[in-house]
Design brief:
Blueprint (H helix, E strand, L loop, with lengths): L1 H19 L7 H7 L11 E4 L1 H7 L3 H8 L8 E7 L2 E6 L1 H15 L13 E5 L14 H16 L3 E5 L7 H13 L2 H7 L1 H16 L10 H15 L3 H25 L16 H10 L3 E4 L2 E4 L9 E4 L7 H16 L3 E7 L3 H13 L8 E6 L2 E3 L14 H19 L6 H18 L7 E3 L1 H4 L7 H18 L15 H10 L2 H11 L3 H20 L8 H24 L9
Helix pairs in contact: 1-2, 5-19, 5-22, 7-9, 7-10, 8-9, 9-10, 10-11, 12-13, 13-14, 15-16, 18-21, 18-22, 19-21, 19-22, 20-21, 21-22
Length: about 575
Amino acid sequence: MMMKIKAQLAEAILGGVLSIAPDCGMDAEGVQNLLEYPPDPAMGDIALPCFKLAKILRRSPVQIAATLAPLVAGDCIERAEAVNGYLNIYLSGEYLANALIPEILEKKESYGAPDFGKGKTVVLDYSSPNVAKPFHIGHLGTTVIGHSLKRLHEFAGYKCVGINYLGDWGTQFGKLILAYRLWGSKEQIEEGGIDELVKLYVKINNAISGNEEQGIAPNKEYADQARAEFHKMELGDEENLALWKWFIKISLDEYEKTYKQLGITFDSYLGESFYTDKMPAQVEKLREMGLLKIDDGASIVDLEQYGMPPCLILKRDGSTLYPTRDIAAAVYRKGEYNFDKCIYVTSNQQILHFQQWFKVVELMGYDWYEGLVHVPYGTVSVNGAKLATRTGNVVLLKDLFAAAIEKVTEIMEEKNPALKGREDIAEAVGVGAIVFYYLSNNRIKDINFNMEDALSFDGNTGPYVQYTYARACSILEKAGDETLKAVDSVTITTPQERALCIVLSQYEEKVRMAIRDYEPSVVTRYILDVATAFNRFYHECSIFGAEDPAVKASRLALTEATKHVLGSAFGLICLRKTEKI
């Protein structure tokens, strides 16, 4: 809705700009890109800073604003004012409400959905844990950012393929097989699951590298034996491959518990091992094109002229590396899904890696290289401590979720002990608190995860917005059949109603921004804006105490519209809807 209004404004303003300078070269899109939302509603609903036009029009910003103000008119405009070089535009609340609310009530949770993705396919590679290692807080970013981007693209009409590119191949499995043979047993693993695998992994790493604190000296023989066990896997040793498959099953069973809590499903679990036999063809193509060079025995693609270090394709011994596997995987996915975009959600520590192999794909002549997108995110520490599975220094997601659920349960037992379905609600709110805390931050920023802040139930938090959704549901439940009555026209009588309409009208615009920037936090912050505007409306505008039936009906309609927008936005960031708390 707001996008339509901005387009109309841009056309009106453009007419004024062209009346000043017919040959300035400006168009409506250029004008629309200059429009912004003022920090204070007293400065208008939309503003045009005229400073950027001063050079083009050869007039002062104050003169430009004064010239344009009388020209900005229309059904959606209440007034336009020129103030200190700004053109401040105030929208008509009545017009906005009567164009907006019926549309939301008709479209419900599909309101605000763009359609630019129709007929296009997006592949998303995210989460992708290393098998036999548990989900810890460091996995939260790729998992929730990736799935949120999948939901956003689906909302815009794209066909989406979510791929969990499991780390299911490599020398770590040689280590784990050796550790299992040295110290493990089938009974222990079946009872302890992935936790027991982690213990074995930490133990073998300590044995190989040594651990001064525990008085363990490095053991080179174990390192050689671990490499030998993995080499046997590569040669097809049935016993080792059977253990490997067993470790994968145990891991996936554990991961599915976390994915279920987050409401996440994948379309493919093809991991690194799947592409082992697909790499040689890509290596041969590089060789035939003359792109491979030998450097100190290794095979590389020289990227010096592109300002990057060489991309390693084969080690000295001929074994492949991550770029080789990623190139083979991208070629396979293009053939399998014919994607328009293939999105990779990984730590920002891998930015150079993706820049390198994306460039190699381009040099190989694959014309779809521009569809490859890396979405990096910042690292996570807990109270300043970095995480590493091999040393056992991790905060497991299941423990973090359990702590949050426990806290919510305690609060519910104190405030609403008679609430039905408390276990499900506590999980939705507890897990939601962690997800919302994470996705409230710009994805590229490093996060020092503070438990108290994450689990706080005051301020701009997940529980706050989920409670707001529950409040809207409660109002509508209380109203009963009254909410089913058709609203011929929406009556706006207060600034709070008007402000809520303004925020609701911005939904599609925010969705488009989130997709454009691959930034779920745009939606998270928008949810907070909607919740804040709705709660102000709720506290200042009596719904059931309204004397005028038209006002009461309008306020119920506004409440229902808010519920639909919040519910839709929740789905875009993996946050569950809670009709009661």
